[in-house]
From TrEMBL:
Pfam families cross-referenced by the UniProt entry: BofC_C (PF08955)
Domain of life: Bacteria
Signal peptide (from-to): none
Species this chain originates from: Selenobaculum gibii
Transmembrane segments: 12-33
InterPro entries for this protein: BofC_C (IPR015050), BofC_C_sf (IPR038117)
Protein name as it appears in the record: BofC C-terminal domain-containing protein
Keywords attached to this entry: Membrane, Transmembrane, Transmembrane helix
Keyword Membrane set for record: yes
Domain Bypass of forespore C C-terminal, first and last residues per copy: 114-185
Amino acid sequence: MLDDITLNKKKYMMMAGISICFLLLLGIGYLFMTRTAEHNDQVVSKFDNDIRVKQSTQIEQVYFYTKCKDELVQEIIPNSECIGIDYKSFQQVYPQWNIELFTEDKIRMSLQVNDYCEWHKNNNFIGIHEGRIAIFSGMPDNKPLLREQTMISVDQLHPQALEEIKNGLVFSSKEEMLQFLEGIQSK
């Protein structure tokens, strides 16, 4: 019986110790998170007060196209509207942009564009996806993106047309591509 009481005391002490450790870790985590947030606020306020865009400031614009996952990076020079302004004013000039870096030497900003990049918009081809004719953006040999899968089965195709489509049939215009698809459907 004495052994049972000693065992229960040990369990109770162990549970109390684990609870104390958990509370300590929770408190340390809270302190760390609030100090990190305060530090971020200090960095932003430093942007507001001290740093100004100069004529020599390099501006890097990163466009991220959500539909094709491509990124376009452009480096531009500040226009006359931007020279001499601080972080807050710069944000007002570029309200949709996420400003990731703001120093006198370099500004890096990014923008998510809910569209295809120009390259994927302007390059389309017909290929095969899951046994059916499909329309892709891009070029056949360079990470194409499936845009639309038709109901046309490859079993319905003439062997010569099938061979061309297997390699990716590139079109210079959407109209030309649609005419080709209509021609295949009518056969």
